[in-house]
Amino acid sequence: MPGTHGDSLPIGAAIRAEPGADGLTVFTKNGTVAVTFISDDVVRIRVLREGQSEPDASWAILPREGAGTKVLVEDDADSLTVRSSFLSVRIARSGGSVTVASGVHILLEAAAFSWESGKPVLRWTQPAERNYYGCGEKSGPLERRGAPMAFWNAEECGYAPGFDPMYHSIPFTLAMDGPLAHGLFVDNTFRQDWRLGELGDTQASIQVEGGALDLYLIATGEPKSVLTRWTDLVGRCPLPPLWALGYHQSRWSYYPESAVRELAANFRSRNIPCDVIWFDIDYMEDYKDFTWHPTRFPDPAKLLSDLKADGFRSVVMLDPGVKVQRGYAVYDSLLATGLFVRNADGTPFVGSVWPGPCLFPDFTNPATRAWWGEQFPSLLAYGIDGFWNDMNEPAVFDSDTHTMPDDVVFDGDGFPDTHLRYHNVYAMDMVRATSEALAKYRSEERSFVLTRAGYAGAHRFAATWTGDNRSDWPSLAISLPMIMNLGISGHGISGPDIGGFVGEPTPELFGRWLQANALFPFCRVHSAKPNWEDPDAPGGAPQEPWAFGEDWEHINRESIGLRYRLLPYLYTLVEEMTRTGFPVIRPLLLEYPDDPDCRNRDTQYLVGRDLLVAPVLTEGDTTRTLYLPAGLWYDFWTEEALDGGREITVGAPLDRLPLFVRAGAAIPTQPFVQHTGECTGVPIEWRVYLGDGAEGTLYEDDGHSRRYLDGDFSRCQLNVEIKDGQAIVKTVCSGTFISPRPAPRVRIINGALVRRPSA
């Protein structure tokens, strides 16, 4: 572990250097340090042991276009320094340590590289009060100092707060020294162990199990600008179809067909909005991928067609394990092609999951990804709308580690190696294969894919959720920092299992959880079977919005209805995220980096820059103490104007989510609808919260096709200016999309003016 120094080989003194157009390579006694400037404000530092060979391609970083940034190299008696206009990298001649600075701000100080028991280790000196955020999916607080962190995709059903590692491995952190932010990414697919220390500690370390120490540092800036540069490197979430931003209902499992039809009928008859019904593994025949259970679902095409006619989309599960069964076409094909994970001796690796003994496609092989895609037309013909890739850490039941053995072999896209190297990218390559299949066979439509696991950059292919959580109040509370940190890490379309997967929520817990997560980009209720060993168990305790009695049905309807009323705002934010990398769900520090009181707020969040949510996270509470950043804010419900820069306590009865709007915001909303297919029939309603004026943006397109990529969208900016005591409303629009909605309306909060925007 990084805390030990036994059998340590330091990188050693610099011997010679080779300058390049965009960097510098320094050869030391025991290795090399290659410095490459990706741009003026992003630098890559790659450290290899002498004689070590590693592929240069990255699973996370997008290929570069054009030449790198020209740099200046300085050579003196003590060090070698390479500079761009934003960053400098200094390599000490005596011991090969590295210091990276952005102006006078030091990002990485006296970084020492070594190999301890053959494993690469980085140690550096850090400011005692530096804060770290991001780090992907972590089931703990927003700020990441304290407990050690591991990056090794792991499944833990019913994990408790603090469990580590989790399903995703995203070794990126947004580091902040006061208001100054920078980024650090360690691009290595082996297991990583980070020790950032408690606040006050000045020493930090990272150990990786193998491969190169491959660091990317992003120069000092505002935290949002760092996230833009980070997502320039690894890509951004694609724009999902509008229906994917609706409310989703799932459990393990809804069957037979009559149960699904009853579920859909209940939503519509009870006037509760819903867009998506999910099909867990019991829809399959014997848990075999690309099949339907013949008696539970005798006519899936008719079922899905009827659901779609009533405004429901369908998402089905696919697991990586392919059941070993002669005569099962997918297994026979996989066996014949040889595109499976192999034991060290070359034989097929067989591991047990839900179907029993299984082969596992080697998704690190491009040929396997193409083969996987060839299986999709049969399922797509039924009218399925989206796909759920689960168990892809990969999970294996008959293993002490609950995953594949360390020595199984993968193709690695032409760089064969063991599970130790490719474990963390297995899920990412699976959802890549799924996403590519949908792009091929449904090329005109945007796809929706959900993954349980991934590596940095997996958000280019799939949304995610936070796995098999618990039905308890602490699990509700950690859902907020988990989603905020995933958003910082690039995974901006995410959410938890609302109500909890394992266990049974009380009516109050379910209702408060639905309130707390109703505005998350991915909004899904999901729950487990009461008896996992019984394949005929139809599902766990009901977690439908009406399952807790009439009073709670009304409360839950309003929580979901709030989401649909704010859907124009949410869709606009998601589209912005695809261009900027700014997450929809933001910790306060992203918008208020200069305010120390916004630094570590785990229990409240921003939706974009304009909405502040402070949900109730404790049983029995009917008030909520929260922090309003500086400026004027409005209570969303009472429209009372409140001064910020202070903590306040507000009433939070069971039927109310504490929600506030920044003065100067113009929020596009819409009337209550049952599903996103009804959106085109209702007008946009601008809610204008006056400050010195107000402004807001509305993004619209057809909601499903890829034509927006060719400019078929509309982006309208609404501006309100106060002149001679009157509110003057103007809009400026770009794009070719013509909205089918009725004419928009404008409502000035705390004013009587209601008028249509001028052209």
Q: What structural class is derived from the secondary structure elements?
A: alpha+beta
Oligomer: single chain
Query: What's the shape?
Result: globular
Sheet with the most strands? 10 strands, antiparallel
* Mean residue pLDDT: 95
Question: Helical amount among residues, as a percent range?
Answer: 10-25%
Number of helices: 13
DSSP E strands, number: 48
User: What proportion of the residues form beta strands (DSSP E)?
Assistant: 25-35%
The end-to-end distance, rounded to whole angstroms, is 64 Å
The whole-angstrom Rg is 26 Å
- Unreliable sequence segments: 1-5, 751-759
Describe this structure in words.
The chain is built from 13 helices and 48 strands. It is an alpha+beta fold and 759 residues long. The strands form 10 sheets. Strands 1, 6, 7, 8, 9, 10, 11, 13, 17 and 18 form a 10-stranded antiparallel β-sheet that branches. A 9-stranded parallel β-sheet has the order 32-31-29-26-22-21-20-34-33. It has an 8-stranded antiparallel β-sheet with strand order 2-3-4-5-19-16-15-12. Strand 39 and strand 40 form a beta hairpin. Mean pLDDT is 95; it is low at 1-5 and 751-759.
List the keywords.
about 750 residues; alpha+beta; ten-stranded antiparallel beta sheet; nine-stranded parallel beta sheet; 13 helices; globular; disordered N terminus; disordered C terminus
Secondary structure: elements and pairs:
Layout: E1 8-10, E2 14-20, E3 23-28, E4 31-39, E5 42-49, E6 72-75, E7 79-83, E8 88-92, E9 98-102, E10 105-116, E11 119-125, E12 131-134, E13 149-151, E14 168-169, E15 172-177, E16 180-186, E17 192-195, E18 203-208, E19 213-221, H1 223-234, E20 247-249, H2 257-269, E21 276-279, H3 300-309, E22 313-318, E23 322-323, H4 329-337, E24 351-353, E25 356-359, H5 366-374, H6 376-380, E26 386-389, E27 409-410, E28 417-418, H7 419-422, H8 426-441, E29 449-451, E30 454-455, E31 463-465, H9 473-488, E32 494-495, E33 497-498, H10 507-517, E34 523-525, H11 550-565, H12 567-580, E35 585-586, H13 588-591, E36 605-607, E37 611-613, E38 623-628, E39 632-635, E40 641-643, E41 646-651, E42 659-662, E43 665-669, E44 685-689, E45 693-700, E46 714-723, E47 726-734, E48 745-749
Parallel strand pairs: 14-30, 20-21, 20-34, 21-22, 22-26, 26-29, 29-31, 31-32, 33-34, 44-48
Antiparallel strand pairs: 1-10, 2-3, 3-4, 4-5, 5-19, 6-7, 7-8, 8-9, 9-10, 10-11, 11-18, 12-15, 13-17, 15-16, 16-19, 17-18, 23-25, 24-25, 27-28, 35-36, 36-37, 37-42, 38-41, 39-40, 39-42, 43-44, 45-46, 46-47
Helix pairs in contact: 5-8, 9-10, 10-11
